[in-house]
Amino acid sequence: MQITKNVYLLEKMKGSYVYLLTGQEPVLIDTGMKGKSHLLMQALDELGMIPKDIAHILLTHQDVDHIGNAKAIKEASNATLWSSVEDLPYIHGQKKGTGVRKVIQTLMKVDHPHVDQTYQIGQKIGGIEIVPAPGHTPGHVCLLYGDVLFAGDLIMTKSGKLSPSPSFLAWNKSILQRSIREVGKLRFDYICPAHGDPVRGHSLWDALM
Ligand SMILES: [Zn+2]
């Protein structure tokens, strides 16, 4: 489903959505739950693309439902895989989170991908600005492309309404709330989360403040 110019939601990845930016340097945002790489490839094919067209894969954070197909897609594409430096040891499987996250990371084994590059503050990759938004995990980021905010798991949507990502999964609840306030100061119109459908209208963010 096309969201706006050059921005697509890969609906086949429902459960933990993946977004695709087309254009000169195509970018995948997150990679969904493991075992779905064939669905991701199909979604690319339906848009007339092959994995080798992907220049960058940007991970919003370390969770298994976001990095699940990163290794497979990276191998099929030769794309550069990016993450925050804080979440990198978890993505590489060298460290586990705490609490519920530790249980999930222990039970849901993924093929850990190798991250090629870590984000620098204020950096733009393929026209996408990296916006640090810690709280859900230590190194969670949002991504801003024109008037489109890729929110990762900072927030989620249901029936057109926004809510913070679940507090039982928050690495740090007060830092999560602070990130929600900070991201709310940015200019955007389209809000694209991993969990729940995209919504439109910056004013929807007010419900979170
Ligand atoms: Zn998630």
Structure characteristics:
7-stranded mixed beta sheet; 209 residues; Metallo-beta-lactamase, Chain A; alpha/beta; binds zinc ion; globular
Explained architecture:
The longest helix has 12 residues, at 173-184. Helix content is 22%, strand content 26%. β9 and β10 (141-145) form a beta hairpin. The two termini are 29 Å apart. The protein has 209 residues and is an alpha/beta fold. The structure holds zinc ion. Zinc ion is lined by residues 16, 63, 65-66, 153, 194-195.
Indicate the topology.
Blueprint: E1 2-4, E2 7-10, E3 18-21, E4 27-29, H1 37-46, E5 56-58, H2 64-67, H3 70-77, E6 80-83, H4 88-91, H5 99-107, E7 117-118, E8 124-125, E9 128-132, E10 141-145, E11 148-152, E12 155-158, E13 161-164, H6 173-184, E14 190-193, E15 199-200
Parallel strand pairs: 4-5, 5-6, 6-7, 11-14
Antiparallel strand pairs: 1-2, 2-3, 3-4, 8-9, 9-10, 10-11, 12-13, 14-15
Bound molecules: zinc ion (ZN).
Summed up, the helix count is 6
**CATH homologous superfamily identity:** Ribonuclease Z/Hydroxyacylglutathione hydrolase-like
Report the end-to-end length measured between terminal Cα atoms: 29 Å
Q: And the CATH topology?
A: Metallo-beta-lactamase, Chain A
- The first-level CATH class name: Alpha Beta
How many strands, what sense, and barrel or not for the largest sheet?
7 strands, mixed
